[in-house]
Amino acid sequence: MSGELAGDTVVVSDQKEGNQLYNRGNYGYPRRGGGLDLDLAEATYLLESSRIEVSQNGSPLTFEELFNHSSSVLEGFDIKYMVYRDMRQRGFVVKVESGGFDMSVFPRGKTMSDSRPIYMVRAASERTAFDIGTFSGEVSETAAKGKQLLYGVVDEEGDLTYYNMSVRDPRGEAPVLPIEGKAAGRLIRDRVFVFSKEEAERIRAAGFYGKMLNNILQLSIIESCFLMREGALDVVSSETGAAMSSQDLVDFGRASQDEFDIRLRAFEDLRRRGLVVKTGFKYGTHFRVYERSPDDCHARYLVHAVSASNVAMWPEISRTVRLSGGVKKEILFCRVSEGTEYLEFRWFRP
Question: What is the mean pLDDT of residues 294-311?
């Protein structure tokens, strides 16, 4: 079989050969009057597989020459080709897309005539920077179409890792309960302590807040801000002896902790969803999250709060996702903007 390179297309003029390629793998798009148009990813793959020959102005091209040409006319072709090639070798029919996604993938063993795409795929280098807002829009778009969003990430050695992205709606069984009276707390360094045993037990029992040290309750700054806003806690500064308002404590948190505002927003939202929220420090995330009492279950989620404009690199995602898998928890990124949104990144094998 032979094709002629014409810009960003390879034309298979012979109708019989074109039909064979289309019918046996859904390669290309049929031309009026017969023949087939192959995009550069398809043509490069078929040339590498020794299934076609490609010529330009009558001279045959090597794989290297076609690959170099494709890379010169299509931005990011090398990365996209690696993902395309891998998906084809896994037995999927793959079609290159010209819109916001790089390719659509049909169910393994199916063709375009008897199925619809199940995955919309983006190809990325491990050195690619991205923002969470882009993922949010892409997840919503693919979900509306009844498809799944996959990212194929190519590392420096050419190996691929796939990630599946989805929107989650985490809910728990520990609603925010009203707390009678106000407990007296004292800010010491970066923690708030409730020294009254009765008050400490009342707060602890209402929602598994803080940690008991004998008969003393230790609260994080974020927990304390939440409880002050709920009208359940008063706080006095140990340095000045002065009473602190909830805004004073928020200002203290901002000055002493990174990303305090978005972490507080995420904490409040998770709590109002009936979830119990604890620090995720030992897992390298902001929070570990339980669906009910931590005494009765393991944390289901690890949650990391990010701003709407957060920019990250794929190695960061890889570390977080692999860690969550190793401890059998689900990793959620809480995107904080005007509202909150939870995105799940999951290692995936197509």
Answer: 90
